[in-house]
Write a structure and sequence with these properties.
single chain; alpha+beta; six-stranded antiparallel beta sheet; two-stranded antiparallel sheet; 2 helices; 25% strand
Length: 234
């Protein structure tokens, strides 16, 4: 999921706090392997966070996501939760994926900002290539103009422990996207490197840029890693 805010300098830290959620109430229908629920997060020491970050606002409204599997009972599929230890493993992998996708996106922007020749682009809002050639010198520079730097939503992994200190649940916490702030779109599908939005449609340029992002990530990692299924709002 994407936002038009600048990308933060992110790092992984552990904080104590309180999470309030209702796992019986869903924000939306279940996805392919996670459910989404309303929640509020309050950390014990939010002043130590680097803004913008999840949990800086006391009792911040967030989306709480939990892994699930389907069990067929009497011919009907039912949503079931994993056991505590296995859930921690699953959501731990999901948390690592979030860390890596942020790193991969930052890698692309670092590449765009490099200028080995010692010159930088003097045109605000334009992107420059890694070889110091400003893309605004192209015949149609407006096609490469992006308003603001996109980023993934702020997120974190919550580990719930019992009185003995044993992990009993693992939940993925995400910045809540307000549906009233814009149109939620899918820009690039999992199974294709082509933009989903038609040429001339709103945000088509952004969809094309995200395809370019995938190409850079594929190339720079030697085909080992790239981000797909870009969706969200700007």
């Amino acid at each position: 999921m994407l936002s038009s805010c600048p990308s933060p300098n992110f790092s992984v830290h552990a904080y104590h706090g309180h999470l309030y959620t209702d796992l019986q109430t869903e924000l939306e229908p279940p996805g392919s392997f996670k459910t989404a629920h309303p929640g509020r997060l309050s950390l014990d020491a939010p002043q130590t966070l680097v803004p913008p970050a999840l949990g800086m606002i006391p009792y911040e409204s967030i989306a709480v996501k939990r892994a699930y599997y389907k069990e067929t009972v009497c011919g009907k599929d039912r949503v079931k939760c994993f056991s505590g230890a296995y859930e921690v493993d699953i959501m731990g992998c999901e948390g690592k994926a979030l860390y890596w996708e942020m790193s991969l996106m930052d890698m692309v922007y670092l590449l765009l900002c490099e200028a080995p020749c010692g010159e930088s682009c003097s045109v605000p809002g334009r992107l420059c290539s890694a070889r110091g050639k400003c893309w605004c010198h192209l015949s149609d520079p407006s096609r490469l103009t992006l308003h603001g730097q996109i980023r993934f939503v702020n997120a974190g992994l919550a580990i719930i422990r019992n009185m003995e200190g044993k992990a009993t649940k693992a939940l993925l916490l995400e910045q809540l996207i307000d549906a009233g702030q814009g149109l939620f779109r899918k820009f690039v599908h999992n199974g294709s490197a082509k933009p989903l939005l038609d040429c001339g449609s709103q945000d088509h340029n952004l969809a094309c840029f995200l395809c370019f992002v995938q190409h850079v990530q594929w190339t720079k990692t030697g085909g080992l890693a790239w981000v797909s299924d870009f969706q969200g709002m700007v």
